[in-house]
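Quick look at the format.
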Amino acid sequence: MTDQKYYETYQEIKETTDPQQKEKYWKTGFGLNKIDYLEPSDYLTKTLLPEHFAGKLTYQEVESALVNHYQTLPEDDQTLRERECDIVSTRIASLLDNSGFVFNPASLKGIHRYLFKDILPEKWVGEFREKNIYKKEPILNGESVAYANYFMIEDTLHYDFETERKKNYVGIDIQEKIKGIAAFTSSIWQIHPFREGNTRTVAVFMVQYLNILGFNVNNDPFEANARYFRNALVRANYTNQAKNISYTDDYLIKFYENLLNDTDHLLLDQEETLENELENP
């Protein structure tokens, strides 16, 4: 035996220096903000990002520059929309560039708080909603998905997470994995735990979760088809028995097949397709 002691030191996780990988994270952030029809500013894309990709600015330094920039501008609607897109995209890219993750409902709260601090009203940030909500959906001809009752949010999330935790994706074929992942995504999205920002929060959470599970995640669909992703979630959680319309994960499964299985489904905005389906079930 030896008295020599070995000490292992923890190493700091640092952001990638690969500009191509960084660009993918940013494009995912921009794509997810398109869900709410938000576009980044020229100041971010033409001034800050070239410096960031060159390794001269960290994510935090980009965000600080954005905060200072927007303090000098009037708070009109266009400026506020660009500010939200710029800052939330920065935070999405930063989260995707960091492997830290814990699988529990508190992570949803933490992601929401990180993404929307100083963007949404303070009482909404990182807190489960305390009101019941609805949203008129174009693809549902103005009808809404039935979201969870606000006083059942914690219990319902706990049930969904425990159900998912018991799954074992090892040893089953990719199609069954995708069906399971789609079902879990649909369930936690349908709860809609926050007043605003649910789809962006769930998307970031799912990318981190899939990375931890060891999936080879192709983020391109989130960049190019984020609005399809949301519409697919809407359709997965809508039923109208009087009109002979049932829930379907088909659209969401197509999205995940592109995300996880290098399938090449054509994912258009799908509003016209979904509307036709609802009119002619």
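Next, a different chain entirely:
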Amino acid sequence: MKIGLFTDSLDDLTFEQALDWVVSEGVEAVEIGTGNFSAAPHFELSKLIQSKEARRGFLKAISQRGLVLSALNCNGNLLDPHPARGQQAKKVFYDTVEVANLLEIDTVVTMSGCPGDLADGDYPNWVTHPWQPQYAELVERQWEEVLTPFWRSASERSTELGVRVAIEMHPGQAVYNTRTLKRLRSIAGPEVVGANLDPSHLFFQGMDPLVVVRALGEGAVFHVHAKDTRINPQEMALNGSLDTRPMTQPGVRSWEYVTLGFGHDALFWRNFLSTLRVMDYDGVLSIEHEDLLMSPREGIEKSIAFLQGLTPRTKP
């Protein structure tokens, strides 16, 4: 396995400055954001689609530093019911798949999308409880009328271009746990759609990433985010994990994203990495820094140092 970095957290640096910095820290791979939830500080999507010379320069900047490009990331709500937002999110996704093909990169990271209430509303509607019959009806209609047709079409295009789509299970999206990811894979095809396995989104939902990896099956993990979550036991006991307080309030919420090792200890991460290898994942561990209590540089440095002593380097 290789230690990588999702470079969005170095958004104060230019593309080449960010590459130089990650090399100096011993990082071996980079994941680059192309748009949607990412501000794409290191990628000009339209330019790279249009210009062969720009693509050549982009790849040369990475390869001449001895780095690997693990994936392009266009995380966003691809099924946003707001007409303008939804159209833009889909365009970024399809453009990212297109440019991945042109760059000969086989993995695009994104999210499943979350539709609205299928009426005239333009806000996403994430159903989390089936008690009222309208909720149960809505979630099934979202799958049948929006998710299924979109992902069948997206799968066909991705297959044509030889690109795999790694879905990040994320609360607020239709695919947020093992069951829903398996459902999407059965619709879109398991060869095309797999997991971008990010344990940080599983911890606070009460899921065990080791069990999830095994349940998804061999070869189902296409990409991995190395990100941790700290659980606040007092707040979890009082208010549970469905916490709608702003993410900008660390220490107040029931949970928060933290630097690797600050939420779960080395024993968990050893077991996680071993389980990934047992299930035939030998790719990149892409550090995603979202710890509000630590600067990006410090958080990334600590995460790299943490992983360096744990990561299996070569297959037997």
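The domain at 2-308 is CATH 3.20.20.150 (TIM Barrel).

See the schema section for token definitions.
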